[in-house]
């Protein structure tokens, strides 16, 4: 058994205690998964929708999200509905996934903070015809994540800031911010630096490479 299998299986009990209609399936020759239903609750804590899903352990869990599938054919398998062709959910942009994983996820927190909001958004689209707070796909989605993190929509500046973060150690708290704003680092891009650096050099390098292309 690899570390992902062990971690996922250990965390399954807590996840099931919070989502009792999920059940663990595990075998020694395959990665484990949770399968069952999740009820969506409205603001009054009343159930208003239900999804049948399967949550599969990813080979590198918890450094990557588990793979999540809707199992009754309700959601179209296309990227406009934020599903890949094989049916697993496109929950957020890669850079957001990397940061969430670097901060630490468990099965319970993943379901609560990622899967349930994703399903709420799917139900909203079925009713209203559009998603709330939707990110674009591919490179544009990555840029939208970076617009928020780095507080600029200038792609050239985003690239230069990412290169600084990639190449340099943490600046002193009282130094001027590396963005050139003239503000002290701790009052400017400190949080953005910490979040982006937490992805690790390899993942940050891959984001920079995609922007350069």
Integer tally of domains: 2
Please identify which CATH superfamily of the largest domain we are dealing with: Ubiquitin Conjugating Enzyme
Kindly estimate the percentage of residues that lie in beta strands according to DSSP: 15-25%
Round the mean pLDDT to the nearest integer and report it.
94
Helix-strand makeup class: alpha+beta
State the helical fraction: 40-55%
**Strand order of the biggest β-sheet:** 1-2-3-4
Alpha-carbon distance between the termini? Answer: 38 Å
Overall number of strands: 4
CATH topological fold name of the largest domain: Ubiquitin Conjugating Enzyme
Query: What sequence of helices (H) and strands (E) makes up the elements?
Result: HEEEEHHHHHH
Shape: globular
In the CATH classification, which architecture of the largest domain applies?
Roll
Please describe the biggest sheet, giving its number of strands, its sense, and whether it closes into a barrel: 4 strands, antiparallel
Notes on the protein architecture:
It contains 7 helices and 4 strands; from the N terminus they run H-E-E-E-E-H-H-H-H-H-H. It is α+β, with helices and mostly antiparallel strands. The chain folds into 2 domains: 115 residues, Ubiquitin Conjugating Enzyme; 75 residues, no CATH class. It has a 4-stranded antiparallel β-sheet with strand order 1-2-3-4. The longest helix has 22 residues. The two termini are 38 Å apart.
